Amino acid sequence: MRATCLLVGKAHATAAAAIKPGMTTMEVNNIVETFIMDHGGYPSFKNYHGYAYATCISMNAAVVHGFPGDHILKEGDIMSLDIGIYKNGFHGDSAYTYAIGEVPDAVKKLLRVTKESLYAGISKARAGNRIGDIAHAIQEHTEKKNGFGVVRELVGHGLGRDLHEDPQVPNYGKKGSGPKLKEGMVLAIEPMINMGTKDVVHLDDGWTVLTRDRKPSAHFEHDVCITKSDPDILSSFAEIEAAEKANPNLVWSYA
Ligand code: MF3
Ligand code: CO
Questions:
Q1: Cα separation of 202 and 178, whole Å?
Q2: What percentage of the chain reaches a pLDDT higher than 90?
Q3: For the chain, how many structural domains are there in total?
Q4: How far apart are CA 98 and CA 17, in angstroms?
Q5: Residue nearest atom 11 in ligand 1 by C-alpha distance
Q6: Would the CB of 78 count as within 6 Å of ligand 1?
Q7: Were both Cys, which of 32, 56, 92, 250 would link to 5 (CB 3.0–4.6 Å)?
Q8: In what order do the strands lie in the sheet with 186-189?
Q9: Domain encompassing residue 155
Q10: Would you state the pLDDT for residue 255?
Q11: What is the mean pLDDT of the chain?
């Protein structure tokens, strides 16, 4: 499973290295899909409940489940790219939000805080803790400390031979609530955080989720294995961050 999850990070990094203004989101999708097929995997999302593409690409006010298409990337955009790969009998699933060219400081802060909240949640992913401990840590960092909105309608999930397994992993909740975490469980933890209202609307394409106020939204996702000791992050952002840093078209410092 770790090998599959690491391959998702490499697929992201391949896309991240290529991103430039003028490119369409379908071109980004195709880079990822080609990478997946070339590495003996299958895109987990393609044909999942009728979803037609290898990736979800959610621009700006789109929260998740956006379709790749003819949107042309331009300076000031943020692009949430979600990639799933099925290989070796298991799924890997990881999302990352990229900032193209210069973006306002408030947007950089949204990306930084969302990524930080993912790690705050991961720090609670320990045997004996409960799902609510992860959820609470994410909500505290984003809503309470930084005034952003946690999307309620969509949640993280167990991951394994199926893309979506029990338990659900909400990004809001009470400490000590929900299912108990056990050694060997793998969770896809994926905060979806809005700059403004937490409320979302669903487009009539049946998939795309947008913020109600059309302010930007960010999404970062890691796959985490519960162990006897520290959380074991099976996916990796290391290559993504290196590609971000090396690509002059991407913002890599959210300070
Ligand atoms: N990473 C998302 C999730 O975990 C992507 C699912 S897109 C779908 O739910 F098309 F596969 F549904
Ligand atoms: Co997921």
A1: 27
A2: 98
A3: 1
A4: 11
A5: 45
A6: no
A7: 92
A8: 165-169, 156-158, 186-189, 222-225, 232-233
A9: 2-251
A10: 52
A11: 97
